[in-house]
């Protein structure tokens, strides 16, 4: 594409168009082809998949060099490990010998306080309650009740639907929610058949559906809808405008910064849900040819940023409640801060390198991109984009529908107040499900009150072809008396906003819970973990074993999902140390970026983007970037966490420190 030299000579496009409305309109028409950047040429196979193949080969080579091609370099258990094993066995035997208590029937709600007084039983009573909870409510091992046929038929059904969910466009146009729900119901029916034919145990479908994420998603969707729909030019529009920028790489950088910090402060799923539509809207506004870099910027950094805090994602919240020793908020964040920063930097660099042609239009390569970022250089294509952006602003200063000078209205300030209270409740540790649903309900009441008492009533007058109002038809009763028209009935929230909740997304997660829960019953994930870890199982975060452990957790998190993996590890290693849990948390969280199904945030971004017509975020387009970025982030972060941490590598409650 060729541009006139006059574009490159203009130092400040904003000032050039401050008072030239007519000229701006002409330039807009002339620059439509400039604003819509030409789609980059199709990538070759090696350009697309080369980084992923290189990253996989590098990870395998690293583990082979550290542990040996056949695991021959795995060290034998040290004397301290043997002593720890004996201590755990003795401690567990003492706990099992303790008699049951009447309040044990309430343990399905949790195992209570970690700090019991001596009169309440102290540390041993806490351990007994926790052991009972882990043993009977979190993970029930029923794999021995399956026949070989039952076990592998369930695994086959799971992997078939996992493949359908990964590549939904390769088959019938059903969509992921329909595929997941169909798979879940198929699994329930098949487990019933196995039960009646003696090939499998009873499937407690209600137990495997984790309600907390469903409540959380519903509350977040409700909150998001009302933030967006309550007022044009309100908080939602201001958030969108804060991410806008005429320069592609800056816009991507703003999205990544917002997503990283927001996920650490609130939760990755909420950030993905709130800003997916915003990112798509920005792509439409700037007529970008490929929205994938911006959607990936949102999804990948949402997962990485959520690894920083205890409330960043569901698996971290679960880890806090299931860990044997206490892990404080500041202790957790302080230990993983350096790995998260390293992973974030690697992800940003990978994004700017892999999608350089989209984010730096007209650039000749990485060297010129560095000059653009740090020296403020511009290519003609980038200058043209800025030129068109500021020309649009000068020609249509009120394109948002709200005068920019109006500032923050009362309703916008009220939205901010509700959101701030919402974030404070999150930060102090209140139940995230209750908080999110309460915020949505409060916003619903405020929106209904505003619409009834302050918003103008919709004009139902009909007009003829010349624009003249058509009088209402008069109606008469049987006696010939004119019937006075009744006042228009108020439109309720149930008829408007509540219908916009994505119930299909909730169905998607319900179906996945059923599929994953039944697959976990077979014991296949546990067997894979034990076989693949070998002698590293009892020293999973020690020495070179930690890098193989990260690889195994990455695979399991993308096959069986990260929350069930955390549940499995909590039951398999009930006395894991705080440092062990930090490695599990970081690995299971960042591993979600490997594939589309690795993280709920990925699914939410894909679903929300598809809902507004953008279907570029697919599994086959996600993987070429997700695989190399995830593996580099994982192994760099694991190195920093293993080298620089102050979390204890022993259990104080177990008495080994």
Descriptive keywords:
657 residues, mainly alpha, two-stranded antiparallel sheet, two-stranded antiparallel ribbon, 29 helices, globular, disordered N terminus
Quick rundown:
The protein has 29 helices and 4 strands. With 657 residues, it is mainly alpha-helical.
Describe this structure in words.
- Helix 13 packs parallel to helix 15 and helix 26 runs antiparallel to helix 27 (578-590).
- This protein has helices spanning 5-9, 13-16, 21-30, 32-35, 45-67, 79-97, 122-138, 148-166, 176-197, 205-208, 211-229, 235-243, 248-265, 268-285, 292-306, 314-322, 329-354, 356-359, 366-375, 380-395, 410-427, 432-453, 503-521, 524-533, 545-559, 562-572, 578-590, 600-611, 619-643; strands spanning 462-463, 469-470, 475-476, 482-483.
- Helices cover 63% and strands 1% of the residues.
- Strands 1-2 form a two-stranded antiparallel ribbon. Strands 3-4 form a two-stranded antiparallel sheet.
- It is mainly alpha-helical and 657 residues long.
- It contains 29 helices and four strands.
- The chain is globular.
- Mean pLDDT is 80; it is low at 1-37 and 399-405.
Q: What integer is the average pLDDT?
A: 80
Report the strand count.
4
Question: Tell me about the biggest sheet?
Answer: 2 strands, antiparallel
Number of continuous helical runs: 29
Strand order of the largest sheet: 1-2
In one word, what is the shape?
globular
- Tell me what portion of residues adopts beta-strand conformation: under 5%
Q: End-to-end span in angstroms?
A: 67 Å
Cα radius of gyration in angstroms: 28 Å
| Helix/strand structural class | mainly alpha
- Unreliable sequence segments: 1-37, 399-405
Helix content: 55-70%
């Amino acid at each position: 594409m060729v541009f006139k030299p006059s574009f490159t000579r203009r130092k400040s496009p904003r000032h050039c168009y401050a008072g030239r409305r007519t000229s701006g309109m002409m330039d807009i028409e002339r620059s439509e082809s400039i604003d819509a950047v030409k789609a980059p040429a199709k990538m070759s196979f090696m350009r697309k998949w080369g980084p992923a193949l290189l990253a996989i080969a590098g990870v395998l080579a690293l583990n082979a060099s550290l542990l040996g091609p056949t695991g021959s370099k795995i060290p034998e258990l040290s004397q301290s490990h043997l002593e720890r094993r004996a201590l755990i066995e003795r401690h567990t035997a003492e706990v099992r010998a303790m008699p049951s208590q009447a309040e044990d029937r309430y343990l399905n709600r949790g195992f209570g306080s970690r700090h019991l007084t001596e009169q309440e039983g102290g540390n041993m009573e806490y351990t007994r309650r926790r052991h009972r909870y882990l043993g009977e409510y979190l993970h029930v091992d029923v794999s021995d009740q399956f026949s070989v046929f039952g076990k592998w038929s369930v695994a086959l059904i799971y992997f078939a639907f996992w493949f359908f969910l990964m590549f939904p466009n390769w088959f019938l146009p059903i969509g992921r929610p329909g595929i997941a729900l169909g798979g879940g119901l198929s699994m329930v029916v098949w487990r019933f058949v196995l039960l009646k034919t003696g090939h499998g145990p009873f499937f407690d479908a209600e137990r495997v559906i984790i309600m907390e994420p469903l409540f959380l998603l519903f509350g977040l969707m409700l909150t998001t809808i009302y933030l967006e729909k309550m007022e044009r030019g309100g908080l939602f529009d201001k958030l969108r405008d804060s991410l806008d920028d005429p320069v592609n790489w800056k816009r991507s950088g703003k999205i990544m910064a917002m997503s990283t910090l927001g996920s650490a402060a609130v939760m990755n799923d909420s950030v993905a849900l709130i800003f997916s539509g915003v990112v798509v809207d920005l792509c439409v506004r700037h007529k970008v040819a490929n929205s994938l870099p911006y959607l990936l910027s949102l999804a990948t950094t949402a997962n990485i940023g959520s690894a920083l805090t205890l409330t960043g994602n569901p698996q971290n919240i679960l880890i806090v409640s299931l860990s044997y020793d206490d892990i404080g908020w500041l202790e957790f964040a302080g230990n993983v801060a350096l790995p998260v920063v390293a992973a974030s930097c690697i992800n940003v660099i990978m994004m700017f390198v892999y999608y350089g042609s989209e984010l730096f239009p007209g650039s000749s390569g990485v060297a010129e991109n560095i000059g653009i970022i740090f020296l403020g250089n511009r290519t003609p294509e980038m200058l043209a984009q800025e030129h068109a952006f500021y020309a649009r602003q000068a020609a249509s200063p009120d394109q948002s529908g709200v005068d920019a000078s109006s500032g923050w209205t009362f309703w916008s300030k009220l939205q901010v107040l509700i959101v701030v209270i919402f974030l404070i409740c999150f930060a102090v540790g209140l139940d995230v499900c209750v908080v999110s649903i309460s915020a949505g309900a409060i916003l619903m009441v405020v929106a209904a009150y505003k619409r009834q008492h302050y918003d103008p009533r919709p004009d139902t007058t009909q007009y003829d072809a010349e624009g003249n109002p058509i009088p209402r038809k008069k109606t008469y009763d049987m006696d010939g008396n004119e019937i006075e028209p009744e006042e228009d009935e108020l439109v309720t929230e149930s008829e408007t906003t509540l219908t916009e909740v994505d119930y299909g997304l909730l169905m998607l997660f319900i179906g996945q819970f059923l599929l994953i829960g039944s697959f976990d019953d077979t014991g296949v994930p546990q067997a894979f973990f034990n076989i693949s870890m070998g002698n590293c199982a009892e020293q999973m975060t020690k020495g070179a074993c930690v890098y193989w452990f990260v690889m195994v957790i990455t695979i399991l998190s993308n096959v069986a999902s990260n929350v069930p993996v955390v549940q499995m590890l909590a039951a398999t290693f009930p006395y894991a140390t705080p440092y062990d849990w930090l490695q599990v948390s970081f690995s299971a969280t960042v591993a979600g970026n490997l594939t589309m199904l690795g993280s709920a945030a990925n699914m939410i971004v894909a679903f929300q983007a598809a809902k507004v017509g953008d279907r570029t975020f697919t599994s086959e387009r996600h993987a070429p970037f997700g695989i190399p970025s995830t593996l580099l982030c994982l192994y760099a972060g694991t190195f920093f966490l293993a080298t620089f941490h102050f979390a204890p590598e022993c259990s104080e409650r177990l008495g080994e420190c």
